[in-house]
Amino acid sequence: MRSKHKETKLNHLGRILGALWFMLVAMNARGDDGAANPRHVVVYSEEGRFAGWPANHGIWIWGDEILVGFSRGYYKDRGEFHHIDKQRPEEFLLARSMDGGLTWRVEQPQPPGALVGAAGMRHGLVPPGPREPELTGLKVPIDFTHPNLALTVRMEDTNAGVSRLSYSYDRGKNWRGPFRLPLFDQKGVMGRTDYVVDGPRSCTLFLTASKQNGKEGRPFCARTTDGGLTWSFLGFIGPEPGGYAIMPASARLGRNQLVAAIRIWDPPRSAIDVYGSQDNGLSWSRLAVAEPDAGEGNPASLLRLRDGRLCMIYGERKRPFSILARLSADEGHSWSKAITLRGDAGGRDIGYVRSVQRPDGKIVAVYYYHVKDRPTRFLAATIWAPEAHGSGNQQHESGRAVGARAQ
């Protein structure tokens, strides 16, 4: 017969083991990184290579087919900078998934060939450089509501230069362009891919202009109503910073209502601010500081989910170096606490997220990444369900630091 002392010890041990089991089950159910059942997959990885910056290139979805652009170069340890060898060629590549982001194949567009007709059809996407012919303006209007449209915007230089636009009507297999974008009376325009389709001939681009001193940067939006033949400057998004405000990520909330997340580096601030417009892009006011401290800074991906919430995903360039998400249920005025999608990064050289929502409601977030003890920068995707995180009403402490409805 067991003594009461032994039974007490066994019961105590049982409670400990039960608690540990429950913790393990909970960690497995939620993913020990805080997101509900996240699934991480490799999009592209190759030893000795650098793969990065999908936020610069863009992402597109047609049902379960997803296409994302990225840069590939050669790995080089450059200290505190992006670990890409600037003395060797950089390529623009595409990765395609036909099963909702579970598996991927990389497509390498061919070098540009001869122009075909007035539309400027050519195969491939190439970085700016000596191989590229002189840029021309668009001559044939774009159908922005074409069911297989993919559109990408890139730039010549991060401080001052000309940006260009290319587009495809066959889901990125063949591209037309690049075509020159105007300078909008700015010293330079640094374009990355972020746009809102408003109609067959109407599209709003979100870009960054050089500041008055010629350095980067200050975000703004522009619009075409004639299929891209001409573009009009609409408005700056926020005041000119002492540091920089760059890489807007946008969403349309209503006929005249837009929202944009801006990457801010204005010492001592390194944040993501969210701005809103009630007049279709002509004027903007700050709604919230959605991320008060992103380390060295990282651009956000912004989605309007089918349930009406906003979802922001971004890289955190401070320890523990993570891919994070926040949700908003009030059109960007307040944001949830950070949800860790992935927290095993090996350092700061991560992020530049672009994301889409699948037909089943799950989000596919694509970013560049590296893990500890392995320097290769690879392209990865995380698939997760935002429904598991409630309404998104829970506010973090800095979410309303500048006022819920700043005027």
Could you characterize what this model shows?
By secondary structure, the protein is mostly beta strands. The chain folds into two domains: 1-30; 36-389, Neuraminidase. Helix content is 8%, strand content 41%. Strands 2, 3, 4, 5 and 6 form a five-stranded antiparallel β-sheet that branches. Strands 11, 12, 13, 14 and 15 form a five-stranded antiparallel β-sheet that branches. The N and C termini lie far apart (76 Å).
Defining key terms:
single chain, 407 residues, mainly beta, Neuraminidase, 2 domains, five-stranded antiparallel beta sheet, 26 strands, 8% helix, globular, disordered N terminus, disordered C terminus
Q: Layout of helices and strands, plus pairs?
A:
Blueprint: H1 4-30, E1 39-44, E2 49-52, H2 54-57, E3 59-62, E4 65-74, E5 91-97, E6 105-107, E7 121-122, E8 150-155, E9 163-168, E10 175-180, E11 189-190, E12 195-197, E13 203-210, E14 216-224, E15 232-236, E16 244-252, E17 258-266, E18 269-277, E19 285-291, E20 300-304, E21 310-316, E22 322-328, E23 339-342, E24 351-357, E25 363-371, E26 374-384
Secondary-structure element sequence?
Answer: HEEHEEEEEEEEEEEEEEEEEEEEEEEE
Distance between the termini: 76 Å
Bin the helical content. Answer: under 10%
Q: Which spans of ≥5 residues are poorly predicted at pLDDT below 50?
A: 1-33, 112-123, 394-407
Mean pLDDT: 85
Shape verdict: globular
Broad CATH class of the largest domain: Mainly Beta
Which sheet architecture does the biggest sheet show? 5 strands, antiparallel
Number of domains: 2
Number of strands: 26
User: Within the CATH hierarchy, at the fold level, what is the topology of the largest domain?
Assistant: Neuraminidase
Q: What structural class results from the helix and strand content?
A: mainly beta
**β content, as a range?**
35-45%
SS element count, helices: 2
Radius of gyration: 23 Å
CATH architecture of the largest domain: 6 Propeller
